[in-house]
């Protein structure tokens, strides 16, 4: 999964569960993305996605590259300690038995600011033509492509399939757009709004200049490691965590991106100062 890719993202509502349903406009986008290896151990692999985009402008010239830290995925072998999204900004610990975890890998997916998204478990199956992993069904927050434009559902309930091919890999999703109560249960009268299918294709490419992404990650990797550590400490200490992405109008994502951006632009990185600033931010946005 590591390396240079042209990544495309396609999502389509296929079924509606109410009278007069009209499917949302299909979502399509693409980007050039490099997947960096953060950790490569026998039982743990961490991969950081970073977008590097160059835009053709009206006069035909190319823009300066845009670099954006994208999502992260952590894979852990025979993992028994998972953290699953419940809804309303809450994640809680789920424990698998050793028998349930035997021979299986968990995939934990994180947002662009390293906040949690979902975690599921499944088994890799290998064929002469490809390798595939089918994950268990999980809840996850609204995706970034919809959380600012949709208010008719609360969580996605879905499963993922990853398929490794000679030319790259694919990420398929089967999602239900679900309505939940304040207590986190499915709404008894209208549990689902629609079904959605999605496929993300990662096609290996050569010849694209990802050096701006290399420079960003080299400059900011230690900063983002502190952010990951802050999350890991809280998940280790608490069985249940509530995360408020925005408090009093302040976005945790934008604050972290601003801090990382300053470092990428050449501001000296002071690990202790950054740790204190991150801790102060977590005190506002994350609570047991």
End-to-end Cα distance: 34 Å
Give the strand tally: 17
Strand order of the largest sheet: 1-2-3-4-7-8-9-11-12-13
Rg on CA atoms, Å: 20 Å
Mean pLDDT: 97
Q: SS-based structural class? A: alpha+beta
What portion of residues belong to β-strands?
Answer: over 45%
Please give the CATH architecture of the largest domain.
Beta Barrel
**Low-pLDDT runs:** none
Proportion of helical residues: 10-25%
- Number of structural units classed as domains: 2
Q: What global shape is seen?
A: globular
Number of helices: 4
Instruction: Give me the strand/helix succession.
Output: EEEEEEHEEEEEEEHEEEHHE
- Give the CATH level 1 class of the largest domain: Mainly Beta
CATH topology of the largest domain: Lipocalin
Describe this structure in words.
By secondary structure, the protein is of the alpha+beta class. It folds into two domains: 3-204, Lipocalin (Beta Barrel); 211-287, no CATH class. The chain contains four helices and 17 strands. It has helices spanning 98-101, 211-237, 252-264, 271-285, and strands at residues 3-16, 27-41, 44-53, 66-77, 81-87, 90-95, 105-110, 116-126, 131-135, 138-140, 155-165, 168-178, 192-204, 240-243, 246-247, 250-251, 286-287. The strands form three sheets. The protein has a ten-stranded antiparallel barrel with strand order 1-2-3-4-7-8-9-11-12-13. Helix 2 (211-237) crosses helix 3 and helix 3 runs antiparallel to helix 4 (271-285). The mean pLDDT is 97.
